[in-house]
Design goal:
The complex is a heterodimer. Chain A is of the alpha/beta class. Chain A has 15 helices and 16 strands. Chain A has 2 domains: 3-180, 2-Layer Sandwich (VC0802-like); 191-452, Rossmann fold, CATH 3.40.50. Chain B has a single domain (4-109), classed as N-terminal domain of TfIIb (Single Sheet). In chain B, 29% of the residues lie in helices and 20% in strands. The chains are: A alpha/beta, B alpha+beta.
């Protein structure tokens, strides 16, 4: 039997709410139903009434979803655009709450979104529920049950208004009983980068890394891989949820840090009690990787460098050497002098749209069937089109979520791709042979150049910048 | 780190080094044993991915003889615990890994192997 529950979401990252809910539900095998009317399942609204089979399920979701707020899941008794409608619905829900009438201690909360309700009206609202006839004692500290009235107002930010203006003029009012406070939001503080013993200037903020970890369906017994490990931001929450994590990076210094005794990533993992779940760290270029076989990982999670803080690099040279230089290199290699250890191989830039397409091919090779690739793709807001994502897809890989974090003229999209095929594919060659199948240039192409030119419209940018399309 | 599970999943990837490029041989290996939580499901699930002979040989080389030469048909708890120990609790902290075929030396420092290739080793 389906019971309705009222979900209250945190006031951030609205595009990430439903993908996260869907991932955590899938991970725990929880079936759920969204509201029928499109306006009721608009993810930008803070409240949503979702159907679930069991109260336990509501608890599981509230304990794992980062975006379910502290007053999170309510057993849903009714809603309405006026209090008359709400009370009518609540009276009809009597079978759900009549068991609390005789001797349950309780409290009532009246709260709102985009508005502050004056105290006098809060009291009025509570008194309007007197027909429920709760006989138990009122207890504000430790009640057996908490009932809450939640008014949702339209966004009036940026307009001048007098105190309490528009009070009672809400879009919708909801009523329910608190079942579980969302405890997962506390993890944002736990994984706060500022309190981490090791981080760098490319470290990912904790809330987003937790969301990414949820998108990977991290849980005990799984192996997750980050091919652009850096300072390991995604590894900690992923390992915290029980998965084993592999990390690699072309630049080992990011994973090691300056401390000579133990790698920085391991120190930070130790702080969170998950060091033993970081299986190994390894320095290599993912386009020349030593993985012996495919279908190894349950998920790949990564924040690829896109050229603003750190540029993506791969092995190779920017420019071909002249014959003379080549000869010198050869001679030097045959008779190395003792003081040039360790050898640092030359690298060349790795253009973002190539990297993204390669990453999907690599994931198809390295993921087990059904495994997920979760990564951020930066993009130019004005130029982004839905098809951008499809320029990097390949057979057997399917986009299941694509959520924008908007920074104004640019943004980044958290893309979740599932490997739908169980066919075996060879390791990708990483050569730029997979030029877009469709004749379309995605907005994330040459992102670095666009960023440093301040995202001028295409015409102004001119034809000068096409350098990174030519393979070097 | 460089646990034996990792060692069993990595092969030499120098250009045109395609035969006898696995397993890499440990040399001057500094070993540390570190306890890791035991998850029988994980161990069972990883078995199809392992090269058994390479794993047993490497473990014996490093002084652990608990694994049988042939993968047993019955995967009882004792066996899984031994396998768990070999895969996840033996860490090679320093030393090198050498490719038997092309002799490329992959150094390990502070538990992190450097598997970057030189210019002439990539295509």
């Amino acid at each position: 039997m389906t019971t309705l529950y009222l979900f209250v979401f945190a006031q951030s990252h609205d595009e990430f709410r439903l993908p996260e809910l869907s991932s955590v539900a899938e991970l725990n095998g929880i079936p759920y139903t969204l509201p029928l009317k499109p306006e009721d399942r608009d993810p930008t609204r803070p409240f949503m009434v979702i159907g679930l089979g069991k109260e336990d399920h509501a608890q599981i979701l509230a304990r794992r979803c980062i975006l379910i707020k502290f007053v999170s899941v309510y057993e849903f008794y009714g809603q309405g655009s006026t209090y008359e409608e709400l009370h009518a619905a609540n009276r009809a829900s009597r079978p759900l709450w009549e068991k609390f009438i005789p001797d349950t201690s309780f409290r009532f909360l009246v709260t709102s979104y985009n508005h502050k309700i004056p105290q006098s009206r809060q009291r009025e609202v509570i008194e309007s529920f007197s027909y429920m006839d709760f006989l138990g004692p009122i207890n504000m500290k430790n009640p057996d049950i908490t009932c809450a009235v939640l008014e949702e107002y339209f966004d009036t930010r940026g307009t001048t208004r007098s105190k309490h203006q528009g009070d009672g003029n809400f879009r919708q009012v909801f009523f329910g009983r608190l079942i579980e406070e969302g405890t997962a939001r506390n993890l944002i503080v736990k994984f706060d980068v500022k309190k981490r013993s090791y981080f760098g200037n490319t470290s990912m903020e904790s809330e987003i890394s937790l969301l990414m970890a949820n998108q990977t369906l991290a849980s005990p017994g799984k192996i997750v891989y980050d091919p652009f490990m850096g300072t390991g931001s995604m590894a900690y929450p992923t390992a915290y949820f029980g998965a084993l994590v592999y990390g690699s990076d072309i630049d080992g210094r990011q994973m090691r840090g300056k401390d000579k005794k133990s790698p920085g990533v391991i120190r930070a993992a130790t702080q969170y009690g998950v060091a033993s779940r970081i299986v190994d760290l390894c320095t290599f270029d993912v386009t020349h990787n030593p993985w012996r076989c495919g279908e190894l990982f349950d998920a790949i999670v990564t924040d690829p460098p896109y050229g603003v803080r750190a540029g993506a690099k791969r092995l190779g040279r920017k420019r071909e050497l002249s014959d003379r230089q080549r000869q010198l290199c050869e001679e030097h290699r045959m008779n190395p002098s003792s003081d040039d250890q360790p050898y640092i191989p030359p690298t060349r830039p790795y253009e973002l749209s190539h990297l993204a397409a390669d990453l999907v091919l690599l994931a198809r090779y390295l993921l087990r069937p059904g495994g997920r690739l979760v990564f951020f793709l930066p993009t130019v807001t004005d130029e982004y089109e839905e098809v951008d994502i499809y320029t990097m897809l390949c057979e057997g890989m399917e986009v299941i979520a694509n959520s924008l974090q908007d920074f104004g003229s640019w943004g980044r999209r958290l893309v979740t791709i599932r490997k739908t095929t169980s066919e075996k594919y060879p390791s990708p060659t990483f050569e730029p042979i997979h030029e877009p199948k469709v004749d379309h240039v995605p907005a994330h192409k040459d992102f670095r150049e666009k960023y440093f030119q301040g995202f001028k419209p295409k015409e102004e940018r001119g034809a000068s910048k096409d350098s990174s399309t030519t393979p070097v | 780190m460089v646990r034996l599970i990792t060692h069993n999943l990595l092969a030499c990837h120098v250009k045109d080094c395609n035969t006898n490029n696995f397993p890499l041989e440990f040399k001057d290996a500094q070993i540390e044993l570190r306890e890791t939580e035991f998850n029988p499901e994980f161990v069972r699930g990883i078995i199809p991915k392992l090269e058994w002979k390479a794993l047993v040989d490497t473990a014996r080389e490093l002084g652990d003889t608990t694994l049988p030469l042939e993968l047993p048909e019955m995967l009882d708890d004792d066996f899984l615990k031994n396998l768990h120990h070999v895969l996840l609790e033996i860490h090679v902290e320093d030393g090198v890994m050498i490719c038997a075929n092309c002799k490329h030396v992959y150094p390990i420092s502070n538990g992190i192997p450097n598997m970057l290739l030189a210019e002439h080793e990539i295509g």
